[in-house]
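Wed. Picked up where I left off yesterday with Actin-related protein 4. The coffee machine is broken again, so keeping this brief.
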Amino acid sequence: MKAAVFPSKIASLGLPSGHRCALFFRSPPALSSSFSTTPCRKLARGIRGSGGLMSQSSSSSQSFSSLSNSFSSQSESELPQVQLPSPKPKSPPPQLPWLIVGLGNPGKKYQGTRHNVGFEMVDALAEAEGISMNTVNFKALFGKGVIGNIPIMLAKPQTFMNASGESVGQIVSFYKIPLKHVLVIYDDLDLPFGKLRLLPKGGHGGHNGMRSIIDRLKGSRDFPRLRIGIGRPPGKMDTANYVLRQFNKQEQEEVVGAVDGVEAMDVDADSAKNNSNSEDSKTNESDKEKGKRKLYVGSQALNYRRDHMEILSPIKDGIVSDWDLVDNIWEHAFRGCLMIDPKEHPMLLAEPPLNTQQQREKAAELMFEKYKVPALFMAKNPVLTSFATGRATSLVVDCGGGSTTISPVHEGYVLQKAVVSAPIGGEFLTDCLLKSLESKGIKIRPRYSFKRKEVRPGEFQVEDVGVPDTTESYKLFCQRMIVGDIKDSICRVPDTPYDDKSYANIPTTSYELPDGQTLEIGADRFKIPDVMFNPSIVQTIHGMEKYGDMIPTVRGLPHMVMESINKCDVDIRRELYSSILLAGGTSSMQQLKERLEKDLIEESPHSARVKVLASGNTTERRFSVWIGGSILASLGSFQQMWFSKSEYEEHGASYIQRKCP
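Structure written out below (tokens, as returned):
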């Protein structure tokens, strides 16, 4: 369970009448993250990775200043009005720091368990605000940062749960933090699953971590705490085993949804409402004026539905089309996933073979100007894939999500004149399968649109959930996730070219949808993958008519390979035929390697020795570029090839063309 806490809005902490704060939660993803394009970025952390982007019109700045003001002993109206003799502005008084502590147990063994939800919340906040948690101090993973103008300290005690007070006591004592500025986040058995409760003070409630903290604070209970409900263990399950058990997928989605749904808790409802309306209207107007948007990055962030949320992609036809989104993805990768400061690390960037000069210079400018990297190198994807297999010369067939690209590599360089690309990739095949199923009357229901309740043991009832403010792009994204899993699970490339008559009576394969209905899929599981070899099949799929003008110009995979090789010099063609490398996520489709090799043997010259190579590990195929990059960067001879910061300052971004040909 991931969630990002914005302590700028903490509520119900026994404030004087008229004061109001709120506690905001945002779910991050599986590599769920959120970004805000305001100066203080908000990130909701996800599974390591950045599979997509969601945009939502929102305001998300002014994080901690309102929190500090809300805990003052007097309201503004109670202060005496004094006329100063001099209009000289005074610098604002220094803000007191806040300490936010998440409780849990250290080590991989306990990651993702119910007892570690406090750790998860602090991790998400650290990611949201770009606060590094790599320092070990005061017996805790410790980090410092600033939100708005409020100094923040984050801590994850590494003493194990029952001795958390040893760490918290040391931090509070060393920095002399007022107890009302110490927020502790932890799990609670007594709250229903997914329920949140924020209190200004209280006892330990039987929680050993809280008991330890109270003991170390000399028995004081006067500090706020956020309790996250994990529910009671089912049946006669031992409590200790229950809290140390990981959330299953359904529980994780429920907890993330419950946390993300909490927006505010008010002490004084009337004044809070008035304050909220005035603040929100001002912020909304400000956002509209600046044209800003709130961005969520990563797999887990995508999995939770939000009203009026759109799915965005920074890439179009393999080339960056929105650098603002790419900037947010990089920020998430550096701060949230890798937990590094880019200033301290040379950066190796992989790029598509058809990347333009302007795109390369823009990437270099962003890396040096914003992230202040000490050195940079840009390498072509096919070259890195080739290095991953220990080859300097090969023909790389990269079957990705958005396109398929054939790139000959000779002695470590891409032969640009022979690069061939087609807009058919994994996402296109997923759309074909989705339209084919819909044309047969099969309804793919997104996970957010229904609930399953167990009415009897083993028997479930499905109830629709009304979500009128869901955008079409998000609905399509969720449907693609389900259909993509169908494609990966049961589809396979046919041994021979597909035709309806030959596959009319093929045995069906079952697939159970998330809502419980079972599909029986027959010919489609062979027809859809064959689109890569015979794109004209698309014209027979109902709902894909919009691609009618594009399909006649697209060639099948074997013809693309032949065309690319024929554009190369005669001297290296035999070597390319014998070193055809499959890479990319779509290349993992069953029987793709065998079918491609068979078709190429039939169509290639008799003197050619065709050999299609592919790793048996699908993960290695998908991440072959990363593997090749790690090999290249580790070579001693590579260190002199970096494009340094001093060279950038002397020659400018255009020098990247010379340093990284």
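Quick read: DSSP finds 21 helices and 28 strands in the chain.
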